Prior knowledge:
Blueprint: H1 2-19, H2 24-46, H3 57-82, H4 89-99, H5 106-159, H6 165-216, H7 222-262
Helix pairs in contact: 1-3, 2-3, 2-7, 3-6, 3-7, 4-7, 5-6, 5-7, 6-7
Amino acid sequence: MNVKKAIMIVIAVIFAMLIIPIPGLVLDILMALNLLSALVILLIIINTKKATDFSSYPTILLLSTFFGLVVNLTATRLILTRGIDFNGRLIQAFASFVSSFVKTGLVMDLVIDFVIFIVFIAVHLTVIVKGSVRLTEVAARFNLDALPGKQMAIEAEYNSGEINEEENVSKKNKLQREVDFFGAMDGVSKFISGNEKVRILIILTSIVGGILIGIVFRDESIIVSMKTYFPLIISNGILCIIPSFLLSGTVGIIITHTLGDSGGDE
């Protein structure tokens, strides 16, 4: 019941973020919470040896991914609506941090920032996310194909008297939980992959939209609009990708841990 209440609270917060405009300070707290939660999940997964030890992981991963996407959308909305008056200090600080490494001129700085973002998200999408999706697919298929043989082995142990009725039921339930876990992970990994592809679309659309808003509605030149929106949007994208990067890594870690330890199960 406590877990269900926590899930309901998280869902309510997510929908509230989509509807209610939030100040920059709250956005900073949400972005920090997004990163902190990803780190906590990573630490838990590193110390988890079996999938059934953290059976709620697919649900937590799904909610965390959804939360990160909503934080990204909320930050994008604030950037586009406030423009130069945007007061999200975390995004501003990261934008200044990235810009401090390049001092080759405004246009060149923006191009370099954009290239860094594209390279970062390409590595994340093609290496981490794609690899995690493939791992979950193989693990789910492997466990599903091996299910009849494992069930027959349990039945053989029960019929030969090696295990009693209680152990028979316990082993079958454990086996079913593992199959359900990998099936859920396979579905969640597809959600993560789609989320990252949508994130690219959000960033590119936000850049174009920010420039158009500055030119059409705020009478800014294209250079001023790019200087205002481009660094903030790119920084927002990178700050939201970092937690997603960590979460995608936890998928591969828990799958490889589980598959590596499965051979030693009795």
